[in-house]
Design goal:
The structure is a single chain. With about 170 residues, the chain is mostly helical. The protein folds into two domains: about 90 residues, no CATH class; about 70 residues, no CATH class. It contains eight helices and no strands. The two termini are about 30 Å apart.
């Protein structure tokens, strides 16, 4: 028997929790949060397993060789934490959320296309949005605060376009 889904977490308490996790990352690991390094480390490990000489010769992959980056464990923790959170809240189910006018194929195409675009941007920027906004913002980096403002502005401008698909 499925228990009824619970409300989402309070966003202010979740924000405080995220801030404390960021502070703990600085204290324990000596650096802030981010995600793109985990994917670079995993890709370097995969290439090193298949073609070690090629991985050592590649400047991008060589920076990740010599052990598993702690960010890999961070991303695993995100997946495990999301799973446990959904399970505890009664929201654990397989579904593709989409608006009534959006097809499943179109929704997946938008999701994968957006993810590929964000991943490409993270590689070009040499870091991901979470690292830039969270870690850079916490360090009072001017570029990070400009990015945060631009990201929010772009989201507000693009929201009406996406809202049509969900109604």
């Amino acid at each position: 028997m499925n228990k009824p889904a619970q409300r989402y977490a309070d966003p202010y308490l979740a924000g405080i929790g995220l801030g404390l996790v960021l502070l703990a990352a600085f204290v324990i690991a000596g650096r802030g949060l981010g995600a793109s390094g985990a994917f670079g480390s995993a890709a370097a490990g995969l290439v090193a397993a298949i073609a070690p000489d090629r991985a050592r010769a590649n400047p991008y992959f060589s920076q990740y060789l010599g052990g598993v980056d702690w960010l890999v464990f961070e991303i695993l923790g995100v997946f495990i934490g999301g799973f446990v959170s959904a399970w505890l809240a009664g929201r654990l189910k397989f579904e593709i959320e989409r608006g009534p006018r959006a097809s499943t194929r179109g929704r997946l195409a938008c999701a994968f296309g957006g993810g590929a675009l964000m991943g490409t941007g993270a590689v070009l920027a040499r870091g991901c949005t979470s690292g830039l906004a969270l870690t850079g913002g916490a360090l009072l980096s001017v570029g990070s605060w400009i990015f945060i403002g631009a990201a929010f502005a772009a989201a507000y401008l693009f929201a009406p376009v996406m809202r049509k698909e969900w109604r």
